[in-house]
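Feature request disguised as a bug report, sorry. It would help if multi-protein outputs had a clear separator. Right now it looks like this:
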Amino acid sequence: MTNKRLMIILALVVTLLSIPLIAMQFSEEVDWDIFDFTVMGVLLLGTGLLCEFVLRKVKTLQNRILLCGAILLVFFLTWAELAVGIFGTPFAGS
């Protein structure tokens, strides 16, 4: 079961990264370079692997949900900061 989940995580990362890659072929509005793909790949893979770690190590369902929810919240906030700089930190280049 665990190898199946890891393969699903990897497939989701590749699928999500292929969306901007395909969009770049049809639109000038999507302009990612290798750095953008690398950062997003690390964020997606890190989030998926952290959630997988929580699912393996944490026993109770409530704690699993809380920890995975916190991991996803940090992921979405980081993504939003990198995308548009909602907090105005130097992390986003502002």
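(second protein starts here, but nothing in the output says so)
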Amino acid sequence: MAREDIPTSRLQRSATIGRLATGTAVKQLATRAANVVRGDEASREALERRHLETAEQIVAVLGTMKGAAMKLGQVMSFLDVGLVPEEFRDEFQRKLAELRDSAPAVPFAEMLGVIESERDEPLEDSFAEFDSEPIAAASIGQVYRARLHDGRVVAVKVQYPGAAAAVRADLQNFGMLVRLMARLAPELDAKAIAEEVRERISEELDYELEAANQRALARLYHEHPFILVPNVISSHSSERVLVSEYVQGHGFEELKRRPQDERNRLGEIIFRFYFGCMYRHHQFSGDPHPGNFLLLDDGRVAFLDFGLFKRIDASVAEFELALARRAIRGDTDGLLEQLRAGGFLRDSNRYTAEQILQQFFDVTWWYTRDADVALTPEVATQVIIDMSDPRSRHYQQMRHENLPREHLFGRRTETLTLAVISQLRASANWHRIAREWIFGEPPVTELGRAEAAYWLR
């Protein structure tokens, strides 16, 4: 099937998103109206068809966009926010997983033009072998397997032609969302948040910057006992082509079917990597999702894709850890005062210390409560509702809160890490693991002890 050109203008892309949303809403309304005269079984089947058609539309429309808009679909593919009835959820997730794992391919001839333009030489001069079929697709690029002339097997990520213009058009349309946010949450510094989002997503277009991010984490985790960050091949990387060590492993859909103890171990590794990078190293991926890691045969987990990346000052990390310490210790007055001083609460007279403590625990309880917690999609859904949804019991007070830009991507990473682990249905005492960075306590798990020995080295 011939590929449609990637829409790059602001009007094209906003119109595409609008048609998707409007068309889906109209069809669902029509289905519900028709169900009035259908029997129960026929109604159920009609709704099921409509939900699956919606998933297919999202795959088709967002998949062809390949810019910032496609990230919405990728996040939806594993972040369950109650969009569909429970009985249709598995099939809906399966359809959306197609978007996450295999976005529509751009013909190799077009990708070849990007590679040779960036390398300023024919493909055969850069690579001894190059497989023309992509092995993975991301929001703004495709990944290929190749072999260098020295024999090393590598993964080559190539940016889509026109991706930069498409993303910039998406970011222009982001202003519409910002204006809506400002109406819903009048105390939110929407302009600062919009600037932060634009900066982070714009950085994703520069693969040289992503290579620097990946190199930094590869050095940190060199010879780590259970985490691998592939090395970058700097000699072959450029602004639109990123070459790194090739790793082969088991993907998320398979891992979801593994025995409980294996999923528990994997969940702990994911938790340690994303939270540990943030609070120990003050630099972290802002894009945890199932396509960004693989389980290797030797038991290590390889983490991939560091385009959406954030570096924070040590003071920002310490501020968040201090909040957690105050909440866990029950220092309600101290928690309220610290949030006010940090710019989260414009007018602290609107709140009581008990309200703020309850709100804090409702969105962090899974790792601030000292108990074994079995994470599920339903747990993640409720946390997300309590964090930002009008259905939250805290919504009225949240409307008058602010989220300073330096904390934005930390909360994104926290939420998406929870979503990934919840899809695995992993269990652990996440609090006892988190106490390593919250309180500086010694580890209590086997993985924690192995990691502590590594950091001492």
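Even a blank line would do. Unrelated, but nice: Confidence is low (pLDDT under 50) at residues 16-39, 77-83.
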